[in-house]
């Protein structure tokens, strides 16, 4: 049997990480600390591979926290950005052709979008969507799910990873826990927290408080406590309840947008919200996000009743990346074959109901999404089988190219909300596995609650290598237990 060649900590990476800590608060601006693994400072990346400062290579399943749908170096994206940079200009603060191209692509692909407004980050886009919902309804409070992340803005950053050592409240009516010092305590009064996958909890809140609630803001798939998919029919019931009570529904699709389908989770689950937030995979690694919705709702932005913006919002370099990503997605769909919609279950636009006609743009997924789902499902189930064969308890769940393998104790088959994840997951055991994987040339985010992602740059050989690395890693941590 061949002896595994493990990657040892590199002096250059260690030195680089130390230098970063002396100039950047916390040593990292994205909370991607390598945890129990060796210090890792990236020198370059290509396709699905990272190289550190010492020349060690790692298959990458973090992918810029899911933003690299096409991998690290897609040629068409790089060419588009290079053309913009060298031939057309870096920045304008005036209307330009890429706003037209990307805006029209979003109109075509995303079911709820008539108009969009660009931002530089998902946090800003969520802030804009929530402000618009408050202005549209004349109400101030929002409802969010425990364990869902909607950016770090003061008015949304609550109950994302509430600690077990605090008073979390009942599982079916969680207490609002502000997630950072420095947020005014009064903000907690504007946020109502509910458990994910519990339509009855939402129904009770809306029955009692719909008159003061502007919007329900929801990740269609929870993606910041690992991956927790919606139960069958859950999102449809959320849509029905919000329409019944005159409350706006905002889909935060920073994680799911363009990863699950050309039209995101809206298309994949056949549910159309009032507003949506997009980012992440849309930019191909460049800092661009947006929020959008029907023209009548977005009119408040058009006429400047709702004010927001930024000097770099819709910047040409960022949109040049998004333009090429969306071009790639559009080439993979058939716009002449619209999806059928069950109009008794799915409604489009603010205040609209059965009988309103809305068809999803684009035909059935082509090779892009078929391939992403094949890669993701093969890796997820393969990893779970390795843990099972080693007698270790794990729960694997995800939606195609975004998934989690939770390590814990006990015979648990699925995790449906944040409390269940928190109770089952052994963060220490996962961190040990991540460190062993990193030694074997596979990079996963070091925290159990951060998902794994695959991209179109990953190959079948990459999956084989990853599963082989996991066999060695799992054998090592099983030996220690």
Descriptive overview:
With 481 residues, the protein is an alpha/beta fold. The chain has helices at residues 11-21, 63-66, 75-88, 97-109, 122-137, 199-209, 234-244, 264-269, 295-302, 316-331, 367-389, 418-424, 427-439, 460-480; strands spanning 42-46, 49-52, 57-60, 115-119, 141-145, 191-194, 213-218, 248-253, 275-278, 289-293, 393-399, 402-408, 442-443, 452-453. The chain folds into two domains: 11-60 and 367-480, Aspartate Aminotransferase, domain 1 (Alpha-Beta Complex); 75-331, Type I PLP-dependent aspartate aminotransferase-like (Major domain) (Aspartate Aminotransferase, domain 2, 3-Layer(aba) Sandwich). The chain has a seven-stranded mixed beta sheet with strand order 4-10-9-8-7-5-6, with helices on both faces. Strands 1-2-3-13 form a four-stranded mixed beta sheet. Helix 4 runs parallel beside helix 10, helix 5 crosses helix 9 (295-302) and helix 6 (199-209) packs parallel to helix 7 (234-244). The longest helix has 23 residues, at 367-389.
What would you call the shape? globular
- Count the beta strands: 14
How many domains, in number, for the residues?
Answer: 2
Q: How would a textbook summarize the main sheet?
A: 7 strands, mixed
**Sheet/helix structural class:** alpha/beta
List low-pLDDT spans.
337-365
What is the CATH homologous superfamily assignment of the largest domain?
Type I PLP-dependent aspartate aminotransferase-like (Major domain)
Average pLDDT confidence is 88
N/C terminus separation: 23 Å
H/E element order: HEEEHHHEHEEHEHEHEEHHHEEHHEEH
Which percent band covers the strand fraction? 5-15%
CATH domain class name of the largest domain:
Alpha Beta
At CATH level 2, the architecture of the largest domain is: 3-Layer(aba) Sandwich
Would you give the CATH topology of the largest domain?
Answer: Aspartate Aminotransferase, domain 2
> What level of helicity do the residues show?
25-40%
| Helical segment count | 14
Strand order of the largest sheet: 4-10-9-8-7-5-6
Q: How big is the Rg?
A: 22 Å
